[in-house]
Write a structure and sequence with these properties.
151 residues; three-stranded mixed β-sheet; alpha/beta; Ubiquitin-like (UB roll); 7 strands; Translation Initiation Factor IF3; 29% strand; four-stranded mixed β-sheet
């Protein structure tokens, strides 16, 4: 048994519970597989409170990944392309990932190579701000590429 205001030693269960009760604390088993099992005298509610507090801090420190989506067509004009490229650059500067997809409507699926060229041209336009995380690949009627911001 270990803990504050307790001499670390081997006690039987009744004595350990009596010591914990005299101190107004709880007896918590820390390592049940050890021989003999290790118990600690602590305030269990305070321990749980601090544990939740640490988990909350850890959760707050984790970065939340935001994915912005930009849609293009296989025959998107230069002006529209540049407009969407500028939006993507802004998103990457803000630290968001950008998912660019070319959507093929109806029979435009025959222009897969045009869609892939458009996505590669898009990647070339944002090369200073982001790196390609996933190369263009066809999923159904969409060709998708993901770009992550540079650190």
């Amino acid at each position: 048994m270990v803990g504050d205001n307790v001499t670390p030693d081997i006690y039987n269960l009744r004595d350990a519970l009596a010591i914990a009760e005299n101190l107004g604390l709880d007896l918590v088993e820390i390592s049940p597989t050890a021989n003999p099992p290790v118990c600690k005298v602590i305030d269990y509610k305070k321990f749980l409170y601090e544990l939740k507090k640490k988990q909350k801090e850890m959760k707050a420190k984790t970065a939340k990944v935001v994915v912005k989506e930009i849609r293009l067509g296989p025959n998107t004009d230069d002006h529209d392309f540049n407009f969407k490229l500028n939006h993507a650059i802004k998103f990457l500067q803000d630290g968001s990932k950008v998912k660019v997809d070319v959507f093929f409507k109806g029979r435009s699926i025959i222009y897969k190579d045009q869609g892939e060229l458009m996505l590669l041209k898009f990647a070339q336009g944002v090369v200073d701000y982001g790196k390609i995380e996933q190369m263009p690949r066809l999923e159904g009627k969409r060709m998708i590429m993901i770009i992550a911001p540079k650190k």
